[in-house]
Amino acid sequence: MSLSVAGVSVRFGNKNALLDVDLEVADHEVVAVLGPSGSGKSTLLRVVAGLQEPSSGTVRLDDVNVTRVPPHRRGVGLMFQDHVLFPHRDVAGNIRFGNSRADIGSLLGLVGLPDAGRRRVDTLSGGEQQRVALARALAPSPKLLMLDEPLGQLDRELRERLVVELRRLFVRLGTTVLAVTHDQREAFALADRVVVMTEGRIAQIGTPREIWEQPASEFVARFLGFTNIVDVDGGASTPWGAVPPAFAGERILVRPAGVLLTPTSGDAMGKVEVATFAGERVDILLAIPGAPPLKAHCPPATAPEPGDEVSVRLDPAQIVVLPRESPE
Ligand SMILES: Nc1ncnc2c1ncn2[C@@H]1O[C@H](COP(=O)(O)OP(=O)(O)OP(=O)(O)O)[C@@H](O)[C@H]1O
C-alpha cells in the first residue's frame, strides 16, 4: 500500500505539532521517522492511522483520500508505544483479541515464538512481549504497518537483534511500514528511507547513507551526533587547521575519521583530553588552544593516550559542507 501525506498540519492550541508536512511512501517501502522528543513523530503516525484529525492537509492510501475515514476502515496495523497486552490472557488470546480469524500458529512462527500460544503474557520477557504485540499488529494482515518505538523499552543488545529480525520480516511480508523511533541506529538498520523531523517539520528525507553522508543541515548533523562543526574563514583556515580553498567561507563538518593525528608535522597542536575505547576504534577528544574541542577516531593500535601532545591534520575527503540554516 502506498501512502501520501500532503500539506498536513496539526495545531494544539497555538502550537504546531506538525507544520505543512509532505511525505510519500511507496508500496513495500520501509520508512523510519526519526527525531528528538516532541518533534511531531507520533502525531504524524496518529494522523496516518486516523487517530488524530489534521488541522489541514490530506492523507491518501493507495491514492484514496482517507483524511476523514475512521481508523478501523483504513486497513492499517498499529503497534504503539503504550500498547497494552492483557497480562492474564495467554499469548494466543492476546493476538486473537479483535482479530477472531487470525492464524495464530503462523503469526507466532513469523515473530519467532512458535510454541508460546498457551503462555500467559506476564510470564514472558520484555522482548517476547514486544513480539506478541507485533504479532497482534500483523494479525489483520495490514497493508500498511505503523510502529511507534517498536523496540523502545528493550535493552540495547536485544534491540540490535530484534531490529535485524524485523527488517527481514518486513522484506519477507512485503508490508509497507512507517516506524517511529528516536534511535538513529534503529532507524538506519530498519528502513529503506529515513525522515528526520524537528519542531513539526521534516528536516531531511533520504536513504540512511544519504543522510549520513550529507546531512541537510546543522540540526541533522548534530542530531546524528556530529560535533566537529566550524566556520572556515576567507583564507581557508579553521581553528583546527587549514582546509582546501574550496571550503573558504563555508560552515563545515569534519567527520571524526577525518581528524588525522600524528606525533609531528600537522597544522595544529593539541592535547588528548579523553580517549575512550570503542572496539574497532578509539574515540579521542582533543583540546587545541583557542579552538573548540575536536573529536577524532583512531585505530586502537596507533591511538594516543590522554595527556599526549599530537598534531592534527584534516582530511578533505571527510569534510562536509553544511547548508546555512535559512532565517525564518
Ligand atoms: N493531545 C495533545 N495536546 C496538546 N499537545 C500535544 C498533544 N499531542 C502532542 N502534543 C504536542 O505536540 C508536539 C509533538 O508531539 P509528538 O508526541 O508528536 O512528538 P514525538 O516526536 O512523538 O515525541 P516523543 O519522541 O517524545 O514521543 C509536542 O510538543 C507535544 O507536547
From TrEMBL:
Residues 3-224 form the ABC transporter domain. It is an enzyme of class 7 (translocase). InterPro entries: AAA+_ATPase, ABC_SmlMolc_Importer, ABC_transporter-like_ATP-bd, ABC_transporter-like_CS, Mo/tungstate-bd_C_term_dom, P-loop_NTPase, Transp-assoc_OB_typ2. The keyword Membrane does not apply. The keyword Translocase does not apply. One of its GO terms (molecular function) is ABC-type quaternary ammonium compound transporting activity. It holds the Pfam family TOBE_2. Keywords: ATP-binding, Nucleotide-binding, Transport. One of its GO terms (cellular component) is ATP-binding cassette (ABC) transporter complex. It comes from the Bacteria. Its EC number is 7.6.2.9. This is ABC-type quaternary amine transporter. It comes from Cryptosporangium aurantiacum.
